[in-house]
């Protein structure tokens, strides 16, 4: 790779499930460097699949912490070999897969502060972790701990109001509880517990980085309104936990200067600042530059909604996190498991396996589908917990089938009405300035995006979000450098590339869907009461 022209920049890191990725963003907010290390491909000695180890019980899922450390060594050496000028880096921040946890052994902080620049990180940190295999977000082995936590605080809804989510198996507090119960000796030898995000920040700081409010919201431990650890939740999970976690900080905090290790080994400038790392989803919200009233719809295998909320209504579904770029606001995640696989199934059955036939069906059917409504859940849906397909005609009578083109519109209108209804259940409201940002595979289909714009009554934009967590981390580094809470994030990133307008609401759309949405919601509740498992 050729010499890089020296340009002042910020680095954005992403310690995700399958890779460590980095982007450099210059002061004009353009990406000027990117690189990655794939765990399975570049570190095969760890034997991961998709970056993880799925254990024999099929519930426990972990990743080797030293694989993450060695991946950082490799990517820094790749950058150095490519001629990247580290002295131009003004600040750096990053993201980590949410909910995962890292267990630093007693004395590890002394090793972190005295790293030799002559050796790679992984050789020096070998003995710094009480657990070599860290639980990650794909783990679902802590159901018992979830029930215990909910009971300890007064129930699922109480826990959701307190921490932003009911208890979920992957959430860190429940994972820590399991480790304390099953490996108390390791727990007691642990002097610090980090999230993947704050672990990565610690590597750059050369000391323990605090957990930020936004990623800390994914632990079932942080009171998201007060931004303090919940004593009731801490006590229900493990003893002396608060001292192992440290105090949480605003996500835009400068947590320190880069460790001398990087100055001496790679040529970083001594003044390079480290801004608190956060979770991959909060970082993506920053990368997509969502603002109040906006909603991002990731149309992938499962569909994920990112919401910006001023006043959340925590519920028994979805997750509310502290907002990573506006400390007084919130964000929410809603996951819909029946996403692209469901769309592809209906395409195959009703549009002869053809997206162009699929689009023609949407073009040839009217908004509102003549009152026909469909619910399509091939696998148990998360939001809400329903399985099966249900079709209703304009008279609310359930029918066994629809004609092909009606089926296709019923699927897409149903998927988007569900998203709007459940987003509004978490406190989201479409505002006059609302922008919908569509990402993921289906966002390249303009007819699907037209339905999205019609159902929400808001314009739909598209942008490249393949590195949104990294880019968002670099933006957040600029934000921290500019003073964080004293400076609006939107102001810091205003010169960043703009998303492209892809669809605007059809005239008359709001009348159609304002009438249809309550009907859809009532039918969903009817199906839920008849078939779905009651929310825990
Ligand atoms: O569990 C999740 C969010 O709650 C996932 O999106 C992880 O953050 C992926 F790393």
Automatic annotation (TrEMBL):
Q: Which UniProt keywords apply?
A: ATP-binding, Carbohydrate metabolism, Kinase, Nucleotide-binding, Transferase, Xylose metabolism
Q: GO molecular function terms here?
A: ATP binding; D-xylulokinase activity
Asked whether the UniProt record includes Iron among its keywords, one would answer no
Answer whether the UniProt record assigns the keyword Nucleotide-binding to this protein: yes
Question: Carbohydrate kinase FGGY N-terminal domain: from which residue to which, for each copy?
Answer: 131-287
Record field: catalytic activity: D-xylulose + ATP = D-xylulose 5-phosphate + ADP + H(+)
CDD domains recorded: ASKHA_NBD_FGGY_SpXK-like
Cellular component aspect of the GO annotation: cytosol
Q: A GO term (biological process) for this protein?
A: D-xylose metabolic process
Give the EC number.
Answer: 2.7.1.17
Q: Where is the Carbohydrate kinase FGGY C-terminal domain?
A: 296-479
Q: Which InterPro entries match?
A: ATPase_NBD, Carb_kinase_FGGY, D-XK_euk, FGGY_C, FGGY_N
Q: How does it assemble?
A: Monomer.
UniProt lists the family membership as follows: Belongs to the FGGY kinase family.
Per the entry, what this protein does is: Phosphorylates D-xylulose to produce D-xylulose 5-phosphate, a molecule that may play an important role in the regulation of glucose metabolism and lipogenesis.
Recorded protein name is Xylulose kinase
């Amino acid at each position: 790779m050729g010499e890089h022209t020296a340009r002042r920049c910020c680095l954005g890191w992403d310690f995700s499930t399958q890779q460590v990725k980095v982007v450099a963003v210059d002061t004009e907010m353009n990406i000027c460097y990117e690189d990655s290390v794939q765990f399975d491909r570049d570190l095969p000695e760890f034997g991961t699949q998709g970056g993880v180890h799925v254990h024999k019980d099929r519930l426990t899922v972990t990743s080797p912490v030293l694989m993450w450390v060695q991946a950082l060594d490799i990517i820094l050496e790749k950058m150095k070999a490519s001629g990247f000028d580290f002295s131009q880096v003004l600040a750096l921040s990053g993201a980590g897969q949410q909910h995962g946890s890292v267990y630093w052994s007693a004395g590890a902080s002394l090793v972190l502060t005295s790293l030799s620049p002559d050796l790679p990180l992984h050789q020096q940190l070998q003995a710094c972790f009480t657990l070599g295999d860290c639980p990650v977000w794909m783990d679902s082995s802590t159901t018992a701990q979830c029930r215990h936590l909910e009971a300890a605080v007064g129930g699922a809804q109480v826990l959701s109001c307190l921490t932003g989510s009911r208890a979920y198996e992957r959430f860190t507090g429940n994972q820590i509880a399991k480790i304390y119960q099953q490996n108390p000796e390791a727990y007691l030898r642990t002097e610090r517990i980090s999230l993947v995000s704050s672990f990565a920040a610690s590597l750059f700081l050369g000391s323990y980085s605090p957990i930020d409010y936004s990623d800390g919201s994914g632990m079932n431990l942080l009171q998201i309104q007060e931004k303090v650890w919940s004593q009731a939740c801490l006590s229900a999970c493990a003893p002396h936990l608060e001292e192992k976690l440290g105090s949480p900080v605003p996500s835009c905090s400068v947590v320190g200067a880069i460790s001398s290790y990087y100055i001496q080994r790679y040529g970083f400038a001594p003044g390079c600042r480290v801004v608190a790392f956060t979770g991959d989803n909060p970082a993506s919200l920053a990368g997509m530059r969502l603002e109040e009233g906006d909603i991002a719809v990731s149309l992938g295998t499962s569909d994920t909604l990112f919401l910006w909320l001023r006043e959340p209504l925590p519920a028994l579904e979805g997750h509310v996190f502290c907002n990573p770029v506006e400390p007084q606001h919130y964000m929410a995640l809603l996951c819909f498991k029946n996403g692209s696989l469901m769309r592809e199934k209906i395409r195959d059955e009703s549009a002869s396996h053809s997206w162009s036939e699929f689009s023609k069906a949407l073009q040839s059917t009217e908004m509102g589908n003549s009152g026909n409504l469909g619910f399509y859940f091939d696998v148990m849906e998360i939001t809400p917990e329903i399985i099966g397909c249900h079709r209703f005609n304009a008279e609310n009578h359930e029918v066994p089938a629809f004609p092909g083109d009606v089926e296709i519109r019923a699927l897409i209108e149903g998927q988007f009405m569900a998203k709007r209804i459940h987003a509004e259940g978490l406190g989201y409201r479409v505002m006059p300035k609302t922008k919908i940002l569509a990402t993921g595979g289906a966002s390249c289909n303009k007819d699907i995006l037209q339905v999205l714009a019609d159902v929400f009554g808001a314009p739909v934009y598209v942008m490249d979000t393949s590195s949104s967590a990294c880019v968002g981390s670099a933006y957040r580094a600029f934000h921290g450098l500019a003073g964080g809470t004293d400076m609006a994030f939107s102001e810091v990133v205003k010169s960043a590339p703009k998303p492209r307008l892809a669809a605007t609401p059809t005239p008359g759309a709001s009348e159609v869907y304002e009438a249809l949405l309550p009907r859809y919601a009532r039918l969903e509740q009817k199906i839920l009461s008849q078939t779905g498992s009651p929310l825990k």
